[in-house]
Amino acid sequence: MATLSYLTTTHFDFGALSLVGKEMKRLNVRRPLVVTDAGVVGAGLLARLEEQLNGMEHQIYSSTPANPTEAAVLSALDQFSRSGCDGIICMGGGSPMDLGKAVALLAGNGGPLARFEPSSGGAKLIERICPIIAIPTTSGTGSEVSVGAVIILDDGRKATFASPKLIPAVAICDPDLTMSLPPQLTAATGMDAITHCIEAVLSPVVNPPAEGVGLDGLWRGWRNIESAVKDGRDKEARWQMMMASTEGAMAFVKGLGAVHALSHSAGRLPNLRLHHGTLNAVFLPAVLRFNRDSARDKYERLTTAMNLPQGADLADAVAERNAQLGLPAGLSAMGVAPSMMEDLVRFAELDLAGRTNPRQLTRGDFETLIVASM
Amino acid sequence: MATLSYLTTTHFDFGALSLVGKEMKRLNVRRPLVVTDAGVVGAGLLARLEEQLNGMEHQIYSSTPANPTEAAVLSALDQFSRSGCDGIICMGGGSPMDLGKAVALLAGNGGPLARFEPSSGGAKLIERICPIIAIPTTSGTGSEVSVGAVIILDDGRKATFASPKLIPAVAICDPDLTMSLPPQLTAATGMDAITHCIEAVLSPVVNPPAEGVGLDGLWRGWRNIESAVKDGRDKEARWQMMMASTEGAMAFVKGLGAVHALSHSAGRLPNLRLHHGTLNAVFLPAVLRFNRDSARDKYERLTTAMNLPQGADLADAVAERNAQLGLPAGLSAMGVAPSMMEDLVRFAELDLAGRTNPRQLTRGDFETLIVASM
Description:
The structure is a homodimer.
Chain A: E1 2-5, E2 9-12, H1 20-26, E3 32-35, H2 38-42, H3 45-53, E4 59-61, H4 70-82, E5 87-92, H5 94-109, E6 132-136, E7 148-152, E8 158-162, E9 170-173, H6 183-202, H7 208-230, H8 235-251, H9 258-267, H10 276-291, H11 296-305, H12 314-324, H13 341-350, H14 363-373
Helix pairs in contact in A: 4-5, 6-7, 6-8, 6-10, 7-8, 7-11, 9-10, 9-13, 10-12, 10-14, 13-14
């Protein structure tokens, strides 16, 4: 069992789920709210967690929506408070993680959510956070070790909350929980992890250790995503994809870039409920073309990590890989219409992630990137 | 200014020294013992620290020997206790760092030092440690972010103490403090950093983020060591070498290997007082030959990080680089005689670092490695 202590303590290996009771005791959590979603319940994973909890008191909130909303956060918070919970266990992909973090944020510091937005300096207002135990069931978000939580606010913005206090007290990464993830979700979440690694490396923020972690995550992710999609029972590939996901999020303490600004914006389009990882995969080629001349040296290192010949076009390589993995070729195939352009650009411009893109972004640039990704 | 928060908080950039007063306040340190050595005093670096302390109360212990001894630790501890100190500022290379950590260890937990040895499970006995502020003046040891402290005990062993509690509360990495480091020390400490990165990557302990950090440190160190040695005023090279040093120590949470087992043993040879980094440089080629078949995949990644063609002999590349940098060609040139063999092997076998070498080491292997390094 690898125990990594960088941003937080991470227990990482097949079978790690068995540590949950021990970790609850260590963190003095006696009545956790388990935050999860219907997919996790349906796949029988919540049952496996409850088996480990073995009669220990706990509450369950399993109605997390994809791309969680402020309303869902308030509903889970209500359950947390009414039941006298003292900690949170997030189990699932990015949505339950983010929702659980937001509940912990409000439980410890009072609302409304909007006042903690980092763009207005709100991260400083975060004082207390109850212990969060994060158990990923996909390999993509990395939210189990990340400083971030993304919530669609009542006013329509998809806001990113970011603070070291939002890093879970412990991450329990058990690749066994991803073995039944279907190929399409494996592909989409895997490309999410790969995008985290790439955008973190390209961010101009100076943090070489994070850059090294991102390059290592990319090295593992790019080598293993095809095997994991092709054969979900490939334990080695599942392990490596989960590691790429964790490393991606460790790396993005450096910030992300234009792909995420665009994906966050598209992720909040009403009615469509588009998958974050799929959006990242679709936006990545155009953004890689756009940024190329602003970070030549880093492109060389990305090329090496992806085991491509120097001078290879990274954008082409990603587009080709997307096609091999059965991911959509563009936004049109996902239901995004040209009429949504203005809305897409407006929220992409507001997004925090764009600020660490290696090349500055204008309104026109966002338009161009969206058109190129259609 | 890059502020990295992985194992500890690190302020990293030219000018970072100016943060020392602020950090003392944050850590509630009112009367630190400044642990340093004659070289740091002679180079005028202590004066630069005192300028920053600007009248704040502090004590100075500047008699740290190269390869610090238990006796020196006790003498500094005496000064710490008599003066009612409440924290430690280590300024210098590895020796003042290690001595300062050992003082903090004894001040908080009582002696003798030997009972904290990790080989006998003693790390668990470490309870309290006063705040340590670490300010490196060389780029090699990385002790400012490491879990370790190496002290020659009264019984003659060179013991490695290792515990997360020995990580300084904050590292202040100001490459400006290394600008006057002479070429030979730049070369020797630089090869120390490079050895840390290589041995950490090769350790079989599972920790991919640390591996990524080690590979990044190697990439920076290998590319910049020649420039830093050739022109000490090359700010970019000094920055990169200091980063390689910090990353090397972040990486070796995975453990080290045979090079360090041998260097620790040779470092305690009475009368010779051999430089740790120089010893690492001299042992590295033979150990790289010895380990090659036990870690083929990792050798490929090391080769890439060092920008060598695949299949290149890493041992030859290091030996060649040592020669270019003016480092000794072998142990004989450093005064080690064949008569010291038994002593060298005995203490190398006892050393903690050998346990994470990728290939198991017998007494005969150590003999072979020493003969090959003569």
